[in-house]
Amino acid sequence: MSERLHLIHDVLDKMVLGRDKHRLGRVDNLVLEIRPDEPPRVVYMEMSGAALLNRLGRIGRATAQWIASRGRDTPRLPFRVAWDLVREIEPASVVVDVDSASSRTMAWERWLATHVVSKLGG
Amino acid sequence: MPAACVARACGATISLATACLVTACGGPPAPSEAAQTVGSWGATAQFVTERWNQSAVSRKFTVVTLRRAGSELEALAKKVAQLPDTANGRATLVAGLREIRAEIAALDTAAVHDDHATAARIAPKLAIAAAQMDTLGQRLQSQQQAQSK
Amino acid sequence: MKRILEVALGLVTSIGGFLEIGSITTAAQGGAAFTFQLGWAVALGTICLALLLEMSGRLAAISKHTIVDAIRERFGFPFSLFPSVIVLVVSFLVMASELGGVALALQFVTGIGIRWWALPIAAVAWLLLWKGTFGMVEQGVSLLGLVTLVFLVGAIKLHPDWGAVAHGLVPTMPSHEPAHYWFIAVSILGASITPYLFIFYSSGAIEDKWDSSYLPINRITAGVGTLFGGALSLMVLVVAGSVLVPRGIQVDSVEQVALLLTHVLGRWGFILVVASLAIGPFGAVAEIALASAYIAAEELGWNWSEDVAPRDAARFSMFYTVLVFLSVLPIALGLDPLKLTMISMVLTAASLPVSVVPFLLLMNDERYVKEHKNGWIGNTAVALIVLMSCVLAVVSIPLQFMGG
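Predict the joint structure of the above. Result:
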């Protein structure tokens, strides 16, 4: 019998680790694909502030849309990790086959490290 | 959902608490409370002077404390002035407050000039005035409690 | 041998790091206003904190989650955001009041006003966090904080009526000013049971890579260490009751606290109390900044650790950097440190259920703590004390300010 996975309990809000076991972020949202004549399936995990805001009701969603569309013709999509990149679901984390050093979800981290923290002797 | 109820209840509690704290009285205090506060600051000023004369505290600290006492009593005097003329003990309170503020101002000058002799002369008078204010405060409080029963 | 040293260090850290501006001033106010009658509030707050610290260490050791991490995972983001934000806001006020406490101590020594000291103190605290490790922040300042043992020495030398002190450990109705009595009781509870303490403790257990073999150390450090620290807080109340009540002095400012041991210990009494007013709160500033950064990082999934270089946890490091320097503002703008302390302690008490209730639920969830779940005594004690703190806060605040 195959093992069961409870998406809300075992995946949503869990810490995500890259292939080097460094923190990438948290599973802020799950995206399922609805297919005609087939059961829904998980396609992405979303990791971003926009994904979090979307879980905070009407005001959160409106704020997320406003931020995403600022200075753009098409709204910027939240960072997504394809479900088939998931390698392990551990008790405390989800490990994905993504390089944390170059991942878009770490862009702010890299920018702060390079432009601010290093200049302060950190 | 219970969690949401707890969260909302706590949010309301914290809002109420913050509102009460932020709007915490600009109005005059009760005469009993004011008298005890005046006595407390007078006693503080006497205590720090006594300790300074015995070299237990520095002159800088003594000046800081005396100035603090002076500014607290100045603020209190403005609030006491708002008390109605018929308030129980008001006249004695105002007179005591004036006397203690004057003594503290004199102590402050003495401390600034490192004049231990003057400070030693003023401190006992201040102790008596402070004790009188404390007694007044306790008497007014007892009267208040008796009236409310 | 290593474990014995860890226990010893943990105990010393608990004792030396216990007293800070909130616990010192609220205990002193309680002693000055009601002699030994509020000893029970100190005892109750200490017991509750000891239980919560032990639980947070146990959660971290068994589940490998910090409190914030586990709350986010177990209850989801929309719920976990609320306690995180509340704790961050209240902790910020506490941090500002601690910074004010250090500034006052420096003013007492130099005569220079507290507004001038706020920024330099924040800069030194930031430097400790930026360049130091978790061990330095937690243990280094706490070792210096052993200077607060002066209150124990002073209390013994004052020869108080120890029978009356013991009697004060049993809750009684106040003989006068009931509104003021309950207000101070609430602020003592808030000063003892500050959420940043057990959040910091659980994050520290993860930093130190605790596992189930650390459970006995955890029990000793959190339980015994906290009880000793709480006893020091009780000694502050005893000293204030013994020294200030006969003189008719209330504690309306920190200057009055600095005078507490000058009669019985002379110049050294002044020096060591002022040192206590500087060191304890300084450690608290660093710990609260770090705890706040832990909350944000764990809530949002950032890299975090005090034991790595700041560039390896850039968002985490910048968060505490911004916070430390923001905390300068209330003091620089002239807010009175003692009033800020009282406000933050009471708000802490009022907000306790928000952080403690989800934590208690986790401590009864086998998925996190396995066979190490809470017993009914721990659950009941914590739930009752926290509920009482919140109810008292709601009732006493309006009474205090509306002249009840």
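Chain C touches chain B through 45 residues (CB under 8 Å).
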